Amino acid sequence: MNEMRVESTALRALAYDGDRGVLQLEFCTRAIDPYYGVPPTVYEALLGASSKGSYFNRVIRGRFPYALCARAQSGLEGKV
């Protein structure tokens, strides 16, 4: 999984493992949450969304299981 920084007021960075269907999101609050069972089409649409925070709220939040993780010290790298 490679971390990708994004332009967003809600999200700071994201990473995706297509083989496992895991989307890891780092929020501007520095919280990092992995979401499970996320298909590649959802990940690709998130990347292309003009508002990544709005897309997250509409399509991902509440629709995919996730785990609450501790706040990030230095980003997503090495978290999955």
Write a structural description:
The chain is an alpha+beta fold and 80 residues long. The protein has one domain (4-60). Helix content is 22%, strand content 25%. The chain has two helices and four strands. The chain has helices at 40-48, 52-60, and strands at 4-5, 11-17, 22-27, 32-36. It has a four-stranded antiparallel sheet with strand order 1-2-3-4, covered by helices on one side. α1 packs antiparallel against α2. It is globular, with a radius of gyration of 11 Å. The protein starts with a strand and ends in a 20-residue tail after the last helix.
| Global morphology | globular
Roughly what percent helix? 10-25%
| Strand order, sheet with most strands | 1-2-3-4
Low-confidence stretches are: none
**Beta-strand content:** 25-35%
* Number of domain modules: 1
The SSE order reads EEEEHH
What is the CA-CA span between the terminal residues? Answer: 7 Å
The major pleated sheet works out as: 4 strands, antiparallel
Give the tally of β-strands. Answer: 4
**Overall pLDDT metric:** 90
* CA-based gyration radius: 11 Å
Secondary-structure class: alpha+beta
Give the count of helical stretches: 2
Blueprint (SSEs and pairs):
Layout: E1 4-5, E2 11-17, E3 22-27, E4 32-36, H1 40-48, H2 52-60
What brief labels describe this structure?
globular, alpha+beta, 2 helices, four-stranded antiparallel beta sheet, single chain, 80 residues
How do you describe this structure in short?
It contains 2 helices and 4 strands.
